[in-house]
Amino acid sequence: MAMFLDAGVAGCAVQLALTVASSVSASSSSSHCVVGMNVRCLPVARGLRIGPSRAKFVSSAASQGSVRSQRRGVVCEAQETVTGVAGVVNEATWKELVLESKIPVLVDFWAPWCGPCRMIAPLIDELAKTYAGQVRCLKLNTDESPGIATEYGIRSIPTVMVFKNGEKKDTVIGAVPKSTLATTLEKYLN
């Protein structure tokens, strides 16, 4: 599945990928830390936070006990945080909420690590408010429900699909303006 990240997150993703690749062969521990080039440890965290990490090193005057702080790259931490108006759908509720819906359904296929997905999340919530009662807006985390994503051929995220009468009617791929999503959605309103 392709990732589309903004510039700030892209650098972290590239750095992390290189770090993981270089440390997989070097480390056989089962801890949650990745030890490598510029990343010392990626702790389990909540939310999205991008900021400098700090590593301490002992200076040449180690015998005198002086310790300085050095900037050592960027730490990116993400976790699923679904807030807003749009509902959540998963493999267990897919049939009931999407396929058997009496009204059109807009489904946002996303993942917590995806920057553009987070960019369009407020747009999906705005559409849910604007079209309340006419359209059901839902979000599906592709990491938690990979079977649905595979079934509908989701190869990159964010992907927004419109369903009507249990059938996929339209697809919009990528972070697009609200007007594009609204125009796509309005084609399927009664």
Bin the strand percentage. 25-35%
- CATH architectural group of the domain at 87-187: 3-Layer(aba) Sandwich
Number of helices: 5
> What's the story with the biggest beta sheet?
5 strands, mixed
Name the structural class: alpha/beta
Order of strands in the sheet with the most strands?
Answer: 3-5-4-6-7
CATH class of the domain at 87-187: Alpha Beta
Helical amount:
25-40%
Radius of gyration: 21 Å
Going by CATH, the homologous superfamily of the domain at 87-187 would be Glutaredoxin
**Number of extended strands:** 7
Distance from N terminus to C terminus (CA atoms, Å) equals 34 Å
C-alpha geometry: globular
Spell the H/E element sequence: HEEEHEHEHEEH
Instruction: Report the mean per-residue pLDDT as an integer.
Output: 72
Output the CATH topology of the domain at 87-187.
Answer: Glutaredoxin
Poorly predicted runs of 5 or more residues: 1-49, 53-63, 75-83
Domain Thioredoxin: 48-190
InterPro entries: Thioredoxin, Thioredoxin-like_sf, Thioredoxin_CS, Thioredoxin_domain
Keywords: Disulfide bond, Electron transport, Redox-active center, Signal, Transport
GO molecular function, one term: protein-disulfide reductase activity
Word description of this protein:
- The protein has five helices and seven strands, in the order H-E-E-E-H-E-H-E-H-E-E-H.
- By secondary structure, the protein is of the alpha/beta class.
- It has a domain of 101 residues: 3-Layer(aba) Sandwich (Glutaredoxin), CATH 3.40.30.
- The chain has a five-stranded mixed β-sheet. A two-stranded antiparallel ribbon has the order 1-2.
- Strand 6 and strand 7 form a beta hairpin.
